Amino acid sequence: MRRSICAAVSMMCLAVPSWADVKMTQNVTSKGMGIGGTAVSTTYIKGLKMRTDTVTGDTTRTTIFDVDGQKMFIFDSKKKEADVWDMADFAKQVGTTTDPAGMTASLKANGQTKSISGKSATGYDMLISLPANLGGKDDGMKMTVNLTGPVWVVKGAPGTEDYLRFYKAAAEKGFIFTDPRAAKAQGGQAKAMAEMYKQFAATGGVPYETEMNIKLSGEGPMAGMMARMGNISSTSTVQAIETASLDDALFAPPAGYKVSAKK
Q: In the chain, fewer beta carbons within 10 Å around the N or the C end?
């Protein structure tokens, strides 16, 4: 009997995935909405928490996602203040300006491969289309958000299991990965990007290079003008991924910061 119990416990231990903390460094170029530029982005993942530090010029902008706690924190290196959002509540707000039932999404392998940062990557073609009301549910302008671009995915990269685990859990909770202040007015773009990360997780690998193009379309002169203004494009390329133990303190605002709740 004792031998059977020991064998069962051993099998359970073998079946438990070995999670590791992840650090990913990317170069990001973007343009749209009258702005553009380049930045270095470093992402840290520990369980169901993620932190992204984006360096532009002499400012580091930090976003922390806590899936279990349903929180998003945003702060920068020049202020000792952090904003925090209740993501369960915010996801409902963003959902009122979009039509998830009308969404179409696909990420299909295109048969191409190339080397990125020393890894062999498989090419995918991404297409996400989502009806949205720009500016609000009742009086907003009816538009369609189209997100397209090639994606290059590496299978078996360091930290893959941890990356997939985080994004799958975030998708189940309805997380968005856009600054909430912008997402309030541009809920369609925010939901389309959230769907993009969900599609990435479904590939079973890590996107090493992503070319993301967001275009708005709609009927009428005003919709045409908004479509031209709202186009955004960005390219992110992974430079390195490491697995190493990360301090829990990395996933919360620094001690002494004033934390303000936002809605």
A: N
For 58-112, the pLDDT digits (tens) are: 999 999 999 999 999 999 999 999 999 998 877 666 555 566 677 888 899 999 9
Q: How many alpha carbons fall within 13 Å on the CB side of residue 25?
A: 7
Which amino acid would we find at residue 17? P
Number of residues that make up the chain:
263
What are the tens digits of pLDDT across the range 122-159?
999 999 888 877 655 555 677 788 889 999 999 999 99
The total of other beta-carbon atoms located within 10 Å of residue 37's CB is: 10
- Give how far Cα 124 sits from Cα of 121, 200, 205, Å: 10, 10, 12
Nearest to 64 by CA among 51, 83, 78, 77: 51
pLDDT at 197: 84
- What whole-number distance in Å separates Cα of residue 211 and Cα of residue 126? 9
The DSSP call for residue 189 is H
Kindly tell me the sign of the dihedral angle through the C-alpha atoms of 240, 78, 177, 66: positive
Cβ-proximal residues to 248 (8 Å cutoff; 6+ apart), any chain: 46
Contact 102, 131 (CB under 8 A): yes
Is-contact 84 73, C-beta < 8 A? Answer: yes
pLDDT of residue 97: 57
The kind and range of the H/E element at 72 are: strand 71-76
The alpha helices in 60-155, defined as continuous H runs, are 87-95
Q: Please give the model's pTM, rounded to 2 decimal places.
A: 0.81
Q: How far apart are CA 201 and CA 148, in angstroms?
A: 17
